[in-house]
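A quick aside before the break. I want you to see a complete sequence-to-structure record at least once, exactly as it would be stored in a machine-readable document. Don't worry about memorizing anything.
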Amino acid sequence: DAIRLPLDRAVALREMSPDRVPTAVALLVTFTLGVGVLMRSGATDAELATHFEAAHALVESLKIGA
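That is the input. The structure line, written in tokens, reads:
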């Protein structure tokens, strides 16, 4: 729910098409699991920041008009 709620808000604001929500949810769940692995393996803050920036860019690309 914590992942889907902001995406549903984006749909309500017409920032994202409803058909893109399942893809965004899958992407963010996978990202969350991957970040956990990176953190346990000793990734630096800079490395984690790079991954967060990439995930943000991917989600932004799913927005309408992106």
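Two observations worth writing down. The first helix runs from residue 4 to 12. Helices lie at 4-12, 21-40, 45-61. We'll return to this after the break.
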